[in-house]
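[job 0412] stage=fold_complex status=start
inputs:
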Amino acid sequence: MKGVELYSDNNLVLRLKTGDQLAYEVLFYKYKNKLKGFIVNSTPPHIDPDEVLQQVFIKIWLQREKLDPEKSFLSFLFTIAKHEVIDQLRSAVNKKLYLLGDMLTDLNIPDHSGSDPQQEMEQKVDELIKKLPERRKQIFELSRFDGLSYKEIAKQLNISENTVDTQIRKALDFLRNEIKKLHFIIFLLINSKK
Amino acid sequence: MDDKFIHLLKRFVAGDYLSVQELKTLKEWINFPGSQLKISNWAQENWMQASEMETAITFEELVSRIDEQCQSEQKGKNYLSKLSAKFQRIAAILILPFAILLAYFIFSDNTFNNQYCKAIAPKGQKSEIVLPDNTHIWLNSGTQVKYPSSFEKNSRDVFLTGEAYFEVSKDKHKPFIVHASDIAVKVLGTKFNVKAYPDDEIIETSLLSGKINLILGQGKGTKEIEMNPGEKLDYSKGSRITTESGFEADETVAWVNNRLVFRDDTFSNMVKKIERWYNVEIIYDRHLFQDRRLTAELLEGESLERALQIIGKAIDINYRIEKQKVYINPKKKNL
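[job 0412] stage=fold_complex status=done
writing structure:
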């Protein structure tokens, strides 16, 4: 993008602090690719780096007043990116633990640890969870991935515990049903390997 | 020399299979405060070694995400800002026939007590937004509307710089108030246009339907003028005088329908309209053309070139377009 080099980072940061959207745009185009490279290096393959990228830049905008023009923009960018990546990692580990552990009992799935069908199953469940309506998915993930109690979830989202309970019930129903349909296929796969 | 935790982390990031036990170990380690330095160093290394990777994300996409965040805060609830959340639809994107996509930018202005959202139509573009109370606002080129993320007080207050057309949803208990420079327009449910560009001397308010009160001055010296449909009030910032007139609804809100209309416009008015519509700068000798008037209508999607051609037929001008600048000179008469 021509014209990007017209402004030094220092100048851009000063302008960004005042809410200058053009400066923000220039910084975005200047550093998005480097940021993506970092995210790809630092998160497991199933994480969408573009999503994380956007979250980082959104945080930069929302925290723009904290920018220190004495320090380099790159170090600010790195700090925010680092925190975001660590959050993502934490989340990913939790999710994986769920998929390997409680998921089996939650969704009535027989255990075939380590084998290919298991991996496929994990992927399928992952996809199914993504299909849940936004709210339900959010509540489900807070419970199963982040390990929050219904009470904690209700408080965080400003809703009743009843609602949390209902949503999780519905989510489990959906997942169990879908798994039943899938299980037949997996069963065939396992048997064909023997 | 990697310690075993870093090694685990690297395997996890690589997408390797980790057993339940390994994952539990990793989880504990990541959450342990004492590990933060090691994690930080690992991240630092990745940062140094990271090579650039292409991403298809555009600035516009980013901006609409920030906007979602702003809108979500509007609901006043404690949502986690999760990815791709579906919140209240904010605006339509107007598409001109010649496939020019118009976008808008909304940024959240998180000041301490007040959360304000800003809608901006950059120069050369128009946009439409829908407020939390279902009021529609169309923003003309180079316009900014600031509104609170939730209408909590006894009135719905928005701040306008530029030109906007409002269709305000009725709410008897909360009058809708448009603040533009030093005037305010108090509305109960209605359709009206306010033109308040910072570089214009006159603020024009035109009422199409419903009822509005124009409020001038502040505190004790406040004057409220009731307006009826079909009325237009011009307020001069310098002299502080208001002048009443009628108006052609068609012409005043032509811009909403993507038509650029000149009706007996002075040359300088014409120039301003063109500059805003096409986001160009017009350079001409201000002593010339003072007596010329223009009446014309440009259809949707007309190019700048074409617009100048049409104008050139009514007023004898030569023009030259150079990137974002247009030079206008009088046509030399052939002897």
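[job 0412] summary: Chain B touches chain A through 51 residues (CB under 8 Å).
[job 0412] exit 0
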